[in-house]
Description:
The complex is a heterodimer of chains A (507) and B (123). Chain A has helices at 56-75, 78-94, 96-107, 111-135, 168-181, 196-205, 221-229, 243-256, 282-292, 315-327, 347-362, 398-401, 417-425, 440-449, 484-488; strands at residues 19-20, 22-24, 27-29, 36-41, 46-52, 139-144, 147-155, 158-162, 185-189, 214-216, 237-240, 260-263, 269-272, 307-311, 366-369, 373-374, 385-386, 389-392, 408-414, 429-430, 432-436, 454-457, 472-473, 476-477, 490-498. By secondary structure, chain A is of the alpha/beta class.
Amino acid sequence: MSVFATPGTGGSTIEVKSRYPHYIGGEWVDPIKGGYFENISPVTGKAFTEIARGTEEDVNAALDAAHAAAPAWGRTSPAERANILNKIADRMEANLEDLAVIETWDNGKAVRETLNADIPLAVDHFRYFAGAVRAQEGGISEIDESTYAYHFHEPLGVVGQIIPWNFPILMAVWKLAPALAAGNAVVLKPAEQTPWSILKLLELVGDLLPAGVVNVVNGFGVEAGKPLASSNRIAKIAFTGETTTGRLIMQYASQNIIPVTLELGGKSPNIFFEDVAAADDAFYDKALEGFTMFALNQGEVCTCPSRALVQQSIFSDFVGDAVKRVEAIKQGNPLDTDTMMGAQASNDQLEKILSYLDIGKQEGAKVLTGGDRAYLDGDLAEGYYVQPTVFEGDNSMRIFQEEIFGPVVSLTSFNDEADALKIANDTLYGLGAGVWTRDGSRAFRAGREIQAGRVWTNCYHAYPAHAAFGGYKQSGIGRENHKMMLDHYQQTKNLLVSYSPDKLGFF
Amino acid sequence: MVDRVDVTPEAADLVRRLTVAHGPVMFHQSGGCCDGSSPMCYPDGEFMLGDADVHLGDLDVGAGRPVQVWMSKAQFEYWKHTHLTIDVVRGRGAGFSLEAPEGVRFLIRSRLFTDEESAALNA
Lengths: 507, 123
């Protein structure tokens, strides 16, 4: 076991300044109206620094800087851009431990996750898009023997990106890496719950990019996010969040006729067929871990496997074993490498989860374990902790239909494959799903029938670059985490060229 | 007449203050990830409503005119058996909702409709 020192204290290698301005045009720039807001660590529930409270004036300054930088950046060769992305990745990797602790302090998640998932995945993401853009080719279409269509990729120019608070650095990198690889300049607004870690990342790697290529404006959604999303000076907006704001962003985009990519969440089914329990072996053990994956990142994952569907014939024994696995989750100081589940990201998130625990109980769902707030000792007493919770109930209950975004799984049984698929698809969303079976044909059939963009088959919560990630139904538009995201950040220029000296003869 | 939606005194007070600062406001109940499942408060007319939405009711908060509360029709199908109360808690951030800079966040509290209420609503 090791416990990392609190950032900004004597034992820590991580500096915490008293306040952090915006990052615009390669400089640290005070907000034009001068406002700052407190940034709270969910680990303790206490403020630890101040962050610039951006307004439309700051967004415009960032857009000025981005527009100044975009033409030259867009003309760099793919090799130059790829080299810069690789250098960013290398520097992040060299500072992986510090970045992991920074992310844990800002977001509240357990440091074993930031050390082994968030930051290594972010590093790999830059490398993936560095490779993808170098390998990208345009196209040549032979229309006839003297007429050719050349297709070139061009950057869009300046794009806006609004980042969620559940994986602040990783979600920023999912959006930054393809945008930068494609040659765009970016104005990025982090979530107001987690504004600090992205600034620490820019402190570390900002000098590797030409000034103005990446600009970060912090602040509240209504004051800084809305002026960015509704600006007529962005060529595209990318957003991860929820449905009402997603609709509002599409509405703004419609006024400027620009494309959007949206990732709006889910209520992902995790299906366990009876053959999972055919032997008490390594695979059965893996399936139990797969069930428990709802607690990863305290359940604050758009693809949280928050509906567990277990076949009736194995229900009692499997659920008994699964609940034991859940009860083995170790909560504690998120900066302790032995801690398995950390703090929820904010007080309002905590309150929302508690409101769902309440409605779940009211609707008659049975609490198999957990079901309440968790109170930790000492400095953590005011942190935002929830017990990992297993509810047993029915798919029509609200806890089965809404994204609680907490460590809460809603469990039900099914009779056969058709029943499982009916329950799985009875949801507004279609982002993720899990299928667990020893029968390859059944896995394939079920995976194809589930209306979701990502079906983990005999695994869950893996997010490797090169596997497309995005939603069906109300879960959004676009596919991240894959080279196809380059298309979302590029224009297609077609040169249609005639090599014939002969006129058409029309005029 | 059974109301589908209500507001706590603390939330009503906040709505009144937001109305002074921003003009008349409305709510649209969100779904999905991050700040999903939260009621979003916007200036009236900011959010485009349409056939995909259901008008849950009006809140009388003493702000001059009733405050409309809406939800998408698809989401309503899964929520319609519950009564909703808009409350407010300490917190921050939720899309572009107006209250976030005040250091507070609107939150939905829910209860099941009684059999009598359900019968009246379905009549």
